[in-house]
Amino acid sequence: MKALLRYHLMPRMILVAIVDFITDFSAVMVAMFLIYGSAYIAGLGSAQVAVQASVFALVFLAMRFAVGLYDWRCCTELKDVFARTIAAYACGFLVLSLIYYLVPGVQIWRSAAAVGMPLALVVVLATRYLLDHGFQGRVFVRRVLVVGVGDKAARIETLEQRKGQRSFCCVGFMPLPGEVRMVSPGRIIASVNSLRLFSEQNEVDEIVIAPADRRGTLPMQALVECRLAGVRISTYQMFIEKETGRVDPDTLQPDWFLFSQGFPSRGLQEAIKRGFDIVASVCLILLALPLMISTMLAIRLEGRGSPFYLQERVGLRGKPFTLIKFRSMRPDAEKDGRPQWARVHDDRVTTVGQVMRKTRIDELPQLFNVLKGDMSFVGPRPERAFFVEQLAQQIPFYNERHEVKPGITGWAQLNYSYGASVEDAKEKLAFDLYYIKYYSVMRDIVIILQTMRVVVWSQGAR
Predict the structure, then answer these.
(1) CB 408 within 8 A of CB 280
(2) Do 329 and 423 lie in a common domain?
(3) Would you say 123 and 80 are in contact if contact means Cβ atoms under 8 Å apart?
(4) Picking from 81-90, 322-331, 339-348, 375-384, which range would have the lowest pLDDT averaged per residue?
(5) pLDDT digit string, tens, across residues 53-98
(6) Which residues pair with 312 in a beta bridge?
(7) Which domain holds residue 284?
(8) Rounded Cα gap, residues 90 and 92, in angstroms
(9) Could you tell me if 149 and 182 are in contact, meaning their C-beta atoms sit under 8 angstroms apart?
(10) Which of 192, 227, 243 is the last residue in one of the domains?
């Protein structure tokens, strides 16, 4: 993986994105040539044509990213790739139409896009199929040697066998004294005279330090030799973060917060983020106003009670604030006064509420929370004080998620389904801590873009 402005990308996905961009760019260039001819294009100027083709390609690149086409977890099968590619081009068509409307003088785009878009769609699907089935070899798969054979090593072995894009393979597991062996016996390396020589002979790209016991004795001199020879050395947590986009909460220790890379100073980035929140929330409130008014009427027609639901949540640094949502449950949903987790097929949800939850319309009033400054567009989802108190007692480091503003959407919402238990909260914390560690404006943009796939595919709705 590579870090692009603190955003980890798999090498294979970088290549796929580059190929997709070149495909779209080439498709619109071919379309221009077919429609207008070389003489007209030469007269227009190569720079202007290149700019138009680049805008075309960038719009569809952004839309593919938004629907999750560069996330292997969303595209484990060809049918998923096909469905999301169609959705990306449909959304891209709408975005380009808006550009054409706002810039009416750009006449060449309309005809070229009409021919270039279907041409690019076919070629993109064909190249994606070839990349998925023809290039799964050494160039995309890191060879990893794991130091340890205990529970952490076993988790890495399980991760290696996950469905979807394979980004690494384990060449073996090196045991440490006193460890209980939990990996496949046939993959344990009996003895190594020279760790550096073994790494060279087996083309090891990375050595992961994963002892079962923090007090385990490591072959430090041998590891130093490997590091000086150019082999990457990673801790277990570093490896898990890059491979999964989350931390492992079961092995988290205080020194992870103190000594690991990340947790950047957020002065300038927070100012940029706040400026974006204000501008975007005002624009979206104005755009969504007809939809919000219609939703309010639908709620009132269905039953009694206010269309809005006000609830106290825990915000930045533990400060409480009032969250605003459209009411999706009956007014007597908690008639006994005791907070309850939401459930699958919750019978307290109204008919209108089911539609709102599927489409996330019930979250729209939170734009006012963003405008006020209680929330941001991106951040951990705010919880009720009752649940925060319970979860903080059962889950280590749970309160650390309040070091950033809560958000309407977030890294955990993209990567994990709706939380409705202590175990769910623990899993979501793993993603929230990862977000806090690798926080950046670029990551926020990525999360906002990819929220589209959560809404369109109704992931995590309850």
Answers:
(1) no
(2) yes
(3) no
(4) 339-348
(5) 888 888 888 888 888 777 766 655 667 777 788 888 888 888 888 8
(6) 322
(7) 267-333+340-456
(8) 5
(9) yes
(10) 243
Three-state SS annotation for 146-188: EECCCHHHHHHHHHHCCCCCCCEEEEEEECCCCCCCCCCHHHE
Measured CA to CA, the distance from residue 252 to residue 87 in angstroms comes to: 39
Q: Which two tokens stand for residue 203?
A: 């083309």
- Write down the pLDDT at residue 116: 75
| 278 and 216 in a common domain | no
Q: Which of 72, 248, 222 is nearest to 145 (CA)?
A: 222
**Is residue 4 pLDDT above 50, yes or no?**
no
Average pLDDT over residues 175-200: 89
Task: Give the pLDDT band (50/70/90) at residue 245.
Answer: confident
Give the total number of structural domains in the chain: 3
H helices of 229-266, in order, are 236-244, 254-259
Average per-residue pLDDT for the chain:
82
Grade residue 444 by pLDDT with cuts at 50, 70 and 90. Answer: confident
Q: Is the pLDDT of residue 140 over 90?
A: no
Same domain for 145 and 41, yes or no, is no
CATH of the domain at 160: 3.40.50.10700
Report how far Cα 100 is from the mean position of its chain's Cα atoms.
30
**Do residue 318 and residue 448 come from a single domain?**
yes
Least Cα distance to 328 among 308, 304, 311 occurs for: 308
Cross-strand pairs, 168: 142
Flag whether 391 is in a domain: yes
Q: Does 191 have pLDDT greater than 60?
A: yes
Tell me the Ramachandran region of residue 460: left when phi exceeds 0, alpha when psi lies from -120 to 50, beta otherwise: left
Answer yes or no: is 255 within a domain. no
The CA-atom distances, in angstroms, between 203 and each of 206, 381, 433 are 9, 43, 33
The pTM assigned to this predicted structure is: 0.79
Instruction: Decide: helix, strand or coil at residue 303.
Output: coil
